[in-house]
C-alpha cells in the first residue's frame, strides 16, 4: 500500500512523464545530438608526484537545422571542455554555425583550422593529446588549431579531394597600426582515398606577430598498419624566430588492441639566442573496450633540448609558462557517448 | 574448477593430455637413459615429498585463495616477458603483440601484475619458451632427461632453460634476498598449482609423467596440432 506522500510522488512522476512525452517531439524537431568524451588518467611525470588528471574531456551539442532550402541545411556545433579533475566546465572548444550543401560548407565561429585537421592531426596518434605529450611538437597549434573569430569555406569532397580556406578577423582599434582587418588566414588542400590521406596547408598572421607556417603531412594505411609523416616549417618575424618540425608515426592494430609509436624532431632558431634542436619519442598501447570505451598506457620522453622546445611551444599555445616534464607515463581511461 | 587448473598449470595440461591420449606410451627410443633418469626422478620425488609438497600444502592452507591467485598472476605476468621474446623468435608477431599488450595492461592497470586484467579485456595468453623456439626451428628434442630439482625435460629443453633463465625478469633483481624470495615464492606457487592436477596420475608415476611431458611439449611446439596415432594400440 502507498501512503499519502508516496501517492503524491507517484502523481507528480506521472505528470512529469506526461510533460516529458509532450516536449519530446519538440526536441526531435531541433535534431540536436548531445555527445561527449570523458577521459581521465593517472600521470607519472619526471620530477613530479603522481597526478590524477583530466585528459581533454569534452561535452558538446551538435545538430542540423532545416532552412527550407533545397540541398542546403544549417548546422551547428557547441563543444565545451569539461574537466574530470576540477569537476567544472572548462574553456570553450568549438562554437560555430554554418550551412552545408552540394556547393560546399561555410562556417562562422570558433572552429578547427585546416592546419590542424589536415597536417598536425595526421601524426597526432596518441590518446594523451596534451601539449606535454601527444601534441608537444605541434607548432601549428600556436595559431591554427581551434580558433575563434574565424570564417571558413570548404569545398565539397570531390572524389577524396577537398580544399578549405579560412580567415580570422578579431577586431581591434583603427588607431592601432599593428591591427589589421584580416588578422590571419589558413588554407589547406587534402586528398584522402584508397588508404592514402595527404594534405598541405599554409597559414599566416598579419597582425603584430607576423607569423607564417607551411606544413605537409601524409598517412597511408596498409591492412592493419598505418604509417604517417609530417613536416612543418615556419617563422615568427616579430621574434626573429624560425622553427621546423618533422614526425614519423606508426600504428599497428590487432583487433581491439593498437600499438603506436612516434618519433619527432623540432628546431627553433632565434637571432641572438642559442639554437635548439631536440627530439621526442613516444609509445602507446591502446585497448578498445566495446565501441565506446578504451584504456591506454602511454609513455613519452624528450631529450634536453626537446624538453626546452616543448616547454616553449606550451607557453605560446597556453599563454602560461610551464616546464614540460622530461618523461611521462600515462594510464588513461576513456568513455565516449 | 578442475579444468581451469588443468589449463593454467604447464605440466598440469600435459597430465590432462596424457589422460586423454592414454594409454599411448612414448616409444622407448625417446628415453634411452631411463636408468639414470629413474634415479634422478626418485631423488626429485624424495625432495618433493619431504620438502616441496608439504611446503606447498602449507602455503595453500594458510594463504587466502585471492592471494594465491594474485601471486600466480604476478609470476605469470613476468613470464609474459619470455613469451614475447620467444614469440618474436618464432616469428609469431600476433602472439608477441598480445603478450606485449598483456604486459602493458597487467603491469599498470593490473597493479604490477597481481590482477590479470588483460584476459577479461580479451587479450589471451600465449605461452612460449626457448625450448619451444628451438623446436619451432626444427631442433629435435633429443633424449628425455630428468633434471635434478627441476623435473622432466629433454636435452634440448634442458639446455634452453639457461636462455629462459635470463629472459625471466627476476634474474635482474639486484637485491639478493628479494631475488631469492621471488624465486622461492615462484617455486611454491608452481608446486601448489600442481597439487590438484597430480591426483589424476595413475600407474607407473615415472612413465606417466614422462609421457605427459613429452606429449605436452609436442602439443605446445605445434601450437595445439598434435598427431596422435590412435590405432597403434588396437
Automatic annotation (TrEMBL), chain B:
Keywords, alphabetical: Lipoprotein, Signal
Pfam families tied to this protein: MlaA
Signal peptide interval: 1-26
GO biological process assignments: intermembrane phospholipid transfer
Entry GO terms, CC: membrane
Protein family (similarity comment): Belongs to the MlaA family.
This protein's name: VacJ family lipoprotein
Amino acid at each position: 500500500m502507498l501512503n499519502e506522500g508516496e501517492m503524491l510522488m507517484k502523481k507528480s512522476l506521472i505528470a512529469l512523464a506526461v510533460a516529458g512525452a509532450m516536449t519530446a517531439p519538440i526536441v526531435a524537431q531541433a535534431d540536436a545530438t548531445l555527445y561527449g568524451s570523458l577521459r581521465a588518467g593517472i600521470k607519472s611525470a619526471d620530477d613530479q608526484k603522481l597526478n590524477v588528471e583530466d585528459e581533454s574531456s569534452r561535452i558538446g551539442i551538435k545538430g542540423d537545422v532545416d532552412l527550407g532550402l533545397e540541398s542546403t541545411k544549417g548546422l551547428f556545433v557547441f563543444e565545451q571542455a569539461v574537466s574530470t579533475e576540477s569537476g567544472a566546465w572548462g574553456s570553450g572548444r568549438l562554437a560555430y554555425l554554418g550551412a552545408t550543401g552540394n556547393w560546399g560548407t561555410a562556417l562562422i565561429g570558433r572552429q578547427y583550422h585546416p592546419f590542424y585537421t589536415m597536417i598536425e592531426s595526421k601524426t597526432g596518434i596518441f590518446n594523451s593529446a596534451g601539449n606535454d605529450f601527444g601534441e608537444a611538437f605541434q607548432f601549428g597549434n600556436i595559431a591554427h588549431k581551434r580558433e575563434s573569430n574565424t570564417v571558413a569555406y570548404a569545398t565539397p569532397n570531390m572524389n577524396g579531394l577537398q580544399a578549405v580556406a579560412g580567415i580570422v578577423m578579431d577586431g581591434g582599434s583603427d588607431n592601432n597600426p599593428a591591427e589589421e582587418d584580416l588578422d590571419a588566414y589558413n588554407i589547406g588542400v587534402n586528398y584522402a582515398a584508397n588508404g592514402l590521406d595527404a594534405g598541405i596547408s599554409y597559414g599566416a598572421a598579419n597582425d603584430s606577430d607576423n607569423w607564417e607556417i607551411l606544413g605537409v603531412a601524409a598517412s597511408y594505411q596498409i591492412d592493419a598498419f598505418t604509417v604517417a609523416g609530417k613536416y612543418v616549417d615556419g617563422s615568427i618575424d616579430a621574434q626573429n624566430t624560425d622553427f621546423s618540425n618533422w614526425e614519423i608515426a606508426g600504428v599497428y592494430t590487432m583487433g581491439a588492441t593498437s600499438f603506436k609509436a612516434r618519433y619527432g624532431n623540432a628546431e627553433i632558431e632565434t637571432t641572438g639566442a642559442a639554437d635548439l634542436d631536440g627530439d621526442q619519442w613516444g609509445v602507446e598501447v591502446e585497448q578498445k573496450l566495446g565501441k565506446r570505451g578504451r584504456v591506454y598506457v602511454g609513455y613519452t620522453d624528450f631529450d634536453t633540448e626537446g624538453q626546452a622546445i616543448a616547454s616553449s611551444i606550451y607557453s605560446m599555445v597556453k599563454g602560461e609558462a610551464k616546464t614540460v616534464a622530461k618523461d611521462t607515463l600515462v594510464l588513461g581511461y576513456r568513455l565516449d557517448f | 574448477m578442475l579444468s581451469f587448473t588443468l589449463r593454467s598449470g604447464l605440466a598440469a595440461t600435459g597430465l590432462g593430455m596424457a589422460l586423454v591420449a592414454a594409454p599411448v606410451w612414448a616409444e622407448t627410443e625417446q628415453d634411452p637413459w631411463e636408468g639414470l633418469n629413474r634415479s634422478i626422478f626418485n631423488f626429485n620425488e624424495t625432495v618433493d615429498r619431504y620438502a616441496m609438497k608439504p611446503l606447498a600444502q602449507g602455503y595453500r592452507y594458510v594463504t587466502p585463495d585471492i592471494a594465491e591467485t594474485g601471486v600466480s598472476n604476478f609470476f605469470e605476468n613476468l613470464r609474459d616477458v619470455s613469451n614475447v621474446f620467444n614469440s618474436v623468435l618464432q616469428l609469431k608477431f600476433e602472439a608477441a603483440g598480445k603478450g606485449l599488450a598483456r604486459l602493458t595492461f597487467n603491469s599498470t592497470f593490473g597493479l604490477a601484475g597481481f590482477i590479470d586484467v588483460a584476459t577479461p579485456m580479451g587479450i589471451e595468453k600465449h605461452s612460449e619458451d626457448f625450448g619451444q623456439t628451438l623446436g619451432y626451428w626444427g631442433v629435435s628434442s633429443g633424449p628425455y632427461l630428468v633434471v635434478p630439482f627441476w623435473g622432466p625435460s629433454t636435452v634440448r629443453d634442458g639446455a634452453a632453460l639457461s636462455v629462459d633463465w635470463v629472459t625471466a625478469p627476476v634474474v635482474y633483481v639486484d637485491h639478493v634476498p628479494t631475488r631469492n624470495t621471488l624465486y622461492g615464492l615462484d617455486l611454491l606457487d608452481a608446486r601448489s598449482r600442481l597439487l590438484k592436477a597430480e591426483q589424476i596420475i595413475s600407474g607407473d608415476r615415472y612413465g606417466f609423467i614422462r609421457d605427459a611431458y613429452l606429449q605436452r611439449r609436442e602439443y605446445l611446439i605445434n601450437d595445439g596440432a598434435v598427431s596422435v596415432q590412435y590405432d597403434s594400440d588396437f
